[in-house]
Write a structure and sequence with these properties.
Elements: H1 3-9, H2 11-40, H3 46-56, H4 58-61, H5 66-69, H6 75-93, H7 99-127, H8 133-158, H9 164-183, H10 206-232, H11 238-266, H12 268-288, H13 292-306, H14 310-319, H15 325-353, H16 356-373
Helix pairs in contact: 2-6, 2-7, 2-8, 2-9, 3-7, 6-7, 6-9, 7-15, 8-11, 10-13, 10-15, 10-16, 11-12, 11-13, 12-13, 12-14, 12-16
Length: 387
Amino acid sequence: MSLKEQIKKNPMFRYLMVLTIASTAGLQIWRTLFNNFAVEVAHLGGNHVGIIQGVREVPGFLALLAIFLLKVIAEHKLSALSILILGLGVGLTGFFPSFTGLIVTTLIMSFGFHYYETTNQSLTLQYFDRQTSPWVFGKIRSISAASNIVAGLFIYLLTYLLSYRNLYLTGGLFIVLIALWALLQDPVDKNLPVQHKKMIVKKKYWLYYALTFLAGARRQIFVAFAVFLLVKKFQFSIREVTVLFIVNNTINYFLSPLIGKAIIHFGERKVLSVEYFSLIFIFLAYAFVQNRWVIALLYILDHIFFNFAIAIRTYFQKIGDPKDIAPTMAFGFTVNHIAAVFIPVLGGLLWMLDYKIPFLFGAALSVVSLSLIQLIRTSKKPEQARS
């Protein structure tokens, strides 16, 4: 039996794959419908939408609280419960078409999504060793890309038949059913180290924290300003942005497992060096290129390199105490979202001065990240693969 076949027979692999489909589809359904629903049904203005989008990031910033929940609930159960909460948030959205209602349902949805992402990362590092976890992370990204496409098609086809309320409700019920299935599963390996259930912050993990924070800042520049540049400056239509979205997810479906294999073969330092060296030029090009199709290509490349960030997690796996994985992933998720609190606001103010400034800032962050990545040192001693 090949190593890949062994991985696929691991109950935790199947468990995480199914929950990832629910998590990704849920966020995609919510995100795709949100702006139109907010404007056409809830009659909200841009200021309201901006506040709600900011509120959506709060649960990511509070991900470290998951550490304390692990004192009363098993981590795999917390994953399933998070998906249940995500499904409830999505399903209820259409019933509360108001500013206050959307803040509440957005918080519910977002807590579910972010806490699942935290436990997903943690469980992957616990159940798959350093020789296999990069491939598993890549496969999870691949499944996410496929789920995004299917969710997009679901919305595209059913918008002709269902109201916003029923679209949200149908998607939410689908996610809740998957969560109920997961709550009945037991994919646990009782031989693995018991995780610490308290805050863990160690000096020896400083490089992981720094790279995680910088990756969060890079993500926010990409999310907040890359698409905005396409639409605002280069007048990309909804259809053109949708095509880019489909192209991105199709590429990532096939490419993400290969990125995982590259991490296994070349190591984290080399893979992350390629990412941030390339990002320096991508951000500079965002600032200065005037051809809309070159900008579209840059957006696709940017999206591809975004997947290289899994190497930061696998780097921690190589330097961290196995008992520190769950609390460190929760703390790392909070660190990653610190940038979400101020980057969009700061970047928006800088954009008003000159749209190039946020991207020049992104290039500068990439230089800092590239420099720090050269400090990565990991043991080359292989582990025995877990089955």
